[in-house]
Each structure stands twice: as structure tokens, then as C-alpha cells.
Amino acid sequence: MSLATTMDRVIETDVLIIGGGVAGCVAAVKASEQGADVTLLEKAATKRSGGAAAGTDHLATIPNGDVTAHHIVAQVCGEGVYPPIRDKQGLTDPNLFYLVYRDARERLEELESWGVKMRWDDGDHYWIPSRRTGGMTTIRLHGLQFKPQLAGAVRKRSVRVLERTMGVELLRDGNRVVGATALNVRTNQFIVVKAKATIICTGMAQRIFNPEDGAPWKFKMMYHWCPTGAGDAHAMAYRAGARLVNMEFSSWYSRLLDDKTIMFGSMTDGDGLSTRIVNAQGEVVSPHAFMSLERYVEEEAAGRTPLYFDVPSNPEDHWLKREIATADERTISLKYRKERGWEYDTHRWELHGTKALALTKFMAGIVVDETCRTTLDGLYAAGDCVQAGGAMTGAIATGFVCAASAVEFAGRAGDPTVDGTQVRDIRQQVFAHMKVENGAEPLEFETKIRTTCERYTGIFRSAGKLQEGISRLADVRKDWLHRIAATNPHELMRALDCHNLIDLAEIHLRAALKREDTRASFFRADFPERNPEWDNKVIFVYCSEGELVLETGELPRLKPEYSRVELEQLEV
Amino acid sequence: MGVQPPIKIDYQTCTGCRICYNLCPMDVFGWDDEIDMPTVPYPGECWFEGVCVMECPERSIDIRLPLSNW
Asked: To the nearest whole number, what is the mean pLDDT of chain A?
């Protein structure tokens, strides 16, 4: 039987893009401009999806003035871009980072030519200082319409956009990825996309942990980054045999306790001013808005918490700048603030932390080379799910890079051959969830994954706890994964999310057990010191014939052609 | 009356334009074909990012901050 007669819909395309956030939309525009037939799958709606769904108030880390791409790479790949994640020597591939930042300015100008507005009323970019780079390297945007404008640019090209459609599994022919199966989460239409090249870009992997407010059950998706994805790209790539790296690293950040929806960036860096942090006794804990986890623990143990942003130390006009920044990103926060009676200039904004929120941005992710190619032929990745693709700047850059690479591959690769048996098996597994009797609700399963990760690998880990967590995950996989019940397309989407989440949780715990070390954002209570045996070592994870494989190895160093004297001095 | 989840639709002013249903990143809205109006079958999955409030042309949707953030 042919696929066309057994599947709801079969699409043949040059370039398939899974994920319609910033990276996916940029990739769709660029691939289409280069003449490729492009199919874009978006789990929600491209106009308001992904990290920029509710607007964006800044684009960070753009080379400007004295701060070159070389400086930024030295910082990002060496010291670390966020103070809580320091000492990243050897944990990232600096070459892709270099390419991301080198061409950042030109790419922004190209986005502007598509109708994505980045300039203020006077026609110029509004540059604000960045404490991270020490220069004027952040552009403040009135970016409330950023995503609708970018999605509009996709609509103007002849891209086949499938809204409310999630990628389910990548399809393989030997070592080559030849497309994917997909599900419409409103209609249950099961779709096969045969593609010469495939790009995956579904954002952060964060839902293996509880959200920032810790709500385990009711109102359970209050994550900092867009929680529509369940690490779909990471999990699909892993199951297809692609390599992931640094999956043991989770991140802790200092966050506003009062209102997680008032974006961290808006509160503190919105206009380049980084509010200092004080403890309950009013002593300065950090001269800026970031601090290390160790420092937080020190304050907590000494009984000096809560910590607060020292709002009165800000200049008088800062509250107004913060209010404008909030109007540019998540305007709903203005309403929340008003309802609670919080004033920007007087409220004691409490910070909290000490729990993991996500796998570490800029570090954990799908392994790609400088062309955004994964370790499988025909498969490319972009955005937050790859090392240098983090945040808007990285998403835009890797969107450009992977589009060029995928179009080039599609031009020379032969027509894809899809294995009909593989497709029918996937379909059967997917729809089995619609037939479960006496099953569990998908979010009950998801809650189990989250509480397991919170307890056994939150921040301070040990071999015993990790082994117990791995054992519990194995039990829940064996006893309950096939008993997740879905009664409609929305619930089927959440059931498929669970398949991704349990794979990512298992990867995270098993990689964490292997790394007997403490460094960057990774802490082992039973190996509390930096272990020199792990210097410059990373853990690669992949799936081989259904088995999880962990391998230690090294990431590439900066290539000589990208290097300059100043970099060599910084020993990147 | 009774329990009110954080997302509330004002059916007096809602015109049934489908924008909330079409744009919600978390797919918390459903559609009632009989009254041709949106419903909220999955309020527990709300991200509280406010796309529905921002995009509603009639300002018929309200989100209150959930108690976990009070």
C-alpha cells in the first residue's frame, strides 16, 4: 500500500522546518528566497509563537563599537554569558558562536528589509549598555509586533505553513533524515512530510522541571521561555540517532518571586541599567542583577534572605524606562502589576532561586557544526536547541545559517525515500493513546517527570539520588507511558509531549550521573570540586538501536582563521 | 458565581472572531460550535503571557494573576 492511501496527507518538499518561532521563521524566509520549496510546521500559530510570542524588548549581544565578535566569543565560551554559569572553558564550540556574532549586524539590517522594525522613531537603533560585554551591544526594541512582522515576512513568501501541527518523529533512510511525521493538534490529521533536508528548531528544553513558581498541577505552565515545546527537537533528534551534548547541565537563575511574567530582562536590563541585589539586611550581595548560585546559598544558609532588587538605588527615571520596556514585551505584566498595587519605584521586588528551570541555554543541545548540520545527513538545527542559537540574536543567526546549508544539501541530495513500515508504526503508536482505557491524564504523567527531576537532579546531585531517579523514571516509562490517555487532539499533543519529556529526563539524569565533577552550572554534592579529569571534556548522548549511549569527547577549538591575537591572549 | 479560573471571557462583548482561539500559544481555548464562541477547556496550561488579552479586538478577555504568584 502506498503512503498516500494510508496517511491523511503526504507532502513532498525541499526543506522541512519544524518549529515556527524566530529561528524557524527566519529559516523559512531565507530558504524560500533561495528558491527552495519550503514547508514550515508550527505547533501553535506563527504570528504569536515561540520566545517572542508576546513581544521582545531587546536584542542582546550585537557587536558594536569596540566590542567585536571576538570579544563576545571569548566571553560567552570562556567566562560565561550569565554569571551563574561561569567557567565554560571547553564546554562550547566557539566556531559557531563566532559565526553567529560576526554577521549579526548585517542580519538585523536584512530583517528590517523584510518589514521587521527595530529602529526607534528617529530612524536609529537605540543602543544600550550591556554589563555582560561592557559595551553598547544591546538594542532596545519596541518589539511588541516583532513576531507578527516576522511571521508576515514568511506569509509573503511562497512557504507552505502548517499551523497547529507538531513534528512527531524524524524519518530516516540510512544515516540520512528524509522528513518527518507530523500531527495536527486540532484535527488529529496525521501527516507525512518527505523532505530533501530538514531543519529542527523548537526552542528550550525546560518542562522536565517545575515552572518558576513551582506550581505542580494547577496553572502549571508558567515558564520563562515558551513552554509550547516539550524539547521536541532535542527528543526527535535523539531518537533519530543525532548527537546531543551537555545534557547534564541545568540552569539556575535568580528570578523575581513576585511576578515571573514581568520579564527578567525588562525589570533589570530593559534600558541597560542592571539593578543591584541586596539581602534582607540591606547589604549589597551583587553590584548588578546577577549573582552566582554559591552566593545565593551562602546568603540563605546565613539567614540573610530574602534577596531583593535594590530599587531605590536606581536613577529616578528608571521606573519609567522599565514601564516602557514592559509595554514592549508582555504588556499583560502592566495589568498584573496594577492589580497587585506594585509600584516599580518602591516595591521590594524579591528574587529567588535554588531550583533548576531548564537545560542550560547556550550549552545543552543538539550538536551542530558551523553549517548548523547535525550529526545526521540532511538534518539541521537552529535556535535555542543548539549551542550558539540561544536567544534572539542566536535564533536569527542560526536561522540564516541552517537555511543556506539545508538549501545547498537539498540541491545536491537525491529524492528522499520514506520507509512506509516506519511511518505506519509511528502512526499506530501515536493513536494508541486515543484507545487507552483507565489511563492517566498526560499532565499527570508530566508532573511525575517534573517532580522526579526536581527531587533527584534539581541542583545538588549525588550518585545515589541520580540512580534512584533513573530507576523511578524507568518504572514510570514501563508502567505508564503506554497508558497515557488522550480523548481529543489537544490531549494527544500533550501525550506526545510526554514521550519527549521522559526521554529528555532520562538523558539528563544519566549524563549527570556520568559527570563526576562540579563546574559551570553543574553541581555534584559527592564531587563538590572541579575535577581536572573533566577539563575540556563533554558528554555526547545519542540513541543507538533504542539504547541510550553516553560518550565522552571534546568539542572543537576556535579555528585559526577565526582567531586573532586578542583571542589567543584570552585563551579561548 | 463559583470558581473562576484565571482566564475569563466576557460573552456580552465577545464577537466570536476566533483570534484568541487561533493565536493562543498554549492552545488553552476551545471552540463551541453551537454558540460560535470560544471556550477555555485547558486553563491550567496557560502561560500567562497575555497574547489573548493583547490581541482581542473587543477587550473581552481578562486574565488575573494566579494565586501561586500572589
From this structure: 90
